[in-house]
Amino acid sequence: MNRVVVTGLGAVTPIGNNVEQFWQGIKDQKVGIAPITKFDTSDFKVHLAAEVKGFVAKEHMDFKAARRMSAFSQYAVAAAKEAMDDAGLDMEKEDPYRVGVSVGSGIGGLNDIEKECEKMEKRGPSRVNPLLVPMMISNMAAGNISIQYRLKGKNINVVTACATGTHSIGEAFRTIQYGDADVMLAGGTESSITPIGVAGFTALTALTACEDPMRASIPFDKERSGFVMGEGAGVVVLESLDHALARGAKIYAELVGYGATCDAYHITSPIEDGSGAAKAMENAMHDANVTPDQIDYINAHGTSTHHNDLFETKAIKLAFGDHARNVKISSTKSMIGHLLGAAGAVEFIVCVKSIENGYIHPTVGYQVPDEECDLDYVINGPEQMDVNYVMTNSLGFGGHNATLLVKKYEA
Questions:
Q1: How many CB atoms sit inside 10 A of residue 318's CB?
Q2: Which one, 64, 103, 283, 383, has the greatest CB density within 10 A?
Q3: What is the pLDDT of residues 221-232, one digit of tens each?
Q4: Angle, CA 112 vertex, CA 186 and CA 228 arms, to 5°
């Protein structure tokens, strides 16, 4: 099977609208959580979110094309452009049928659905935007990327709730491994900070009602009380090692393992013993032919909900055994909230940058230890160390578990 490497990175996040700004925000331990500005939250229990700030679509794509896209597609197209530029990918020199897209969204154009439903109720069905359907359906991020950049290879949209971004990268990895494409743009995107989105997650008791941005998203902290909704996109360029070397591409890291399982237990809660997520981690390590003691860092799903953080801790103990207490663990969601379908993709970028920079960010805001969450969550500032193998986890409603394993590239 083909070896698969990472050659390009693109991101739109609550702490930066490109990878350079985002990574600087990570190193500055910047928290992108603030009062919601997208709508009036007076009647809501939840008032905080991690919104993308200062994003202007026409700066990243054709203005007319942008008007026909929902925000989640705009974020994805912008991140894809950055990733392609970063990779130096020149489509004039590529077979377009060998370059594909695997970019998913957990929800799609929720804002457009909400807006047009309100319009229909007030003004009748004839006034609904004729572009509603192609704006709202979740595959349109992948579709729009392919249209904008003339990518004619495999084009798929994985939808597994909060595991979407990780599964999308994993399926792109498999596509290249098995020779179905030379290059894949892969990742996730989301923009669901809307009245119905926030109300729905609030009714589910999934969101924190904390009013302090610095104590709202606090993964593994005993006082955690729910996640903070975020938005944005992460897209990476994956390609076969042979293809990357042939065109002289810069190689950030190598993707070596992918594991995917289902808890088959509950629609929102992970299984209590962590066995499903543990098996995904074990499968990724088996895929990469590595042992737990070789893993330097786990970028945890770490949502700041009671159940997730407890059961993910149990899962790491199951999968890693004695090494569980030696591996560094932190949650990027402590800074950017939970980007839902985009989370795993943006966190994958953190993993790649951690390898490149020898830098592991802390779980920002952590203060109160939880005796049941008793691993090394990197709480006393960042760790500067040689990082060779990094694992990233994503767990989605419906019991979906996905794990990716990235390593420092060696020729």
A1: 18
A2: 103
A3: 999 999 999 999
A4: 65
What does the CA dihedral 233, 104, 70, 112 come to, rounded to 10 degrees?
-120
CA 206 to CA 268: how far, in whole Å? 9
Q: Mind telling me the catalytic residues?
A: 162, 301, 338
Residues in the chain: 411
Sequence-separated (6 or more) residues with CB below 8 Å from residue 367: 215, 218, 221, 223
Give pLDDT tens digits for 358-380: 999 999 999 999 999 999 999 99
According to DSSP, the β-strands at 328-330 and 48-49 are unpaired
Label the pairing between strands 34-35 and 48-49: antiparallel
Dihedral sign of CA atoms 258, 262, 263, 268 in order: positive
Quick check: 254 and 289 in contact, CB under 8 A?
Answer: no
The mean pLDDT value for 333-359 works out to 98
Per-residue model confidence (pLDDT) at position 173: 98
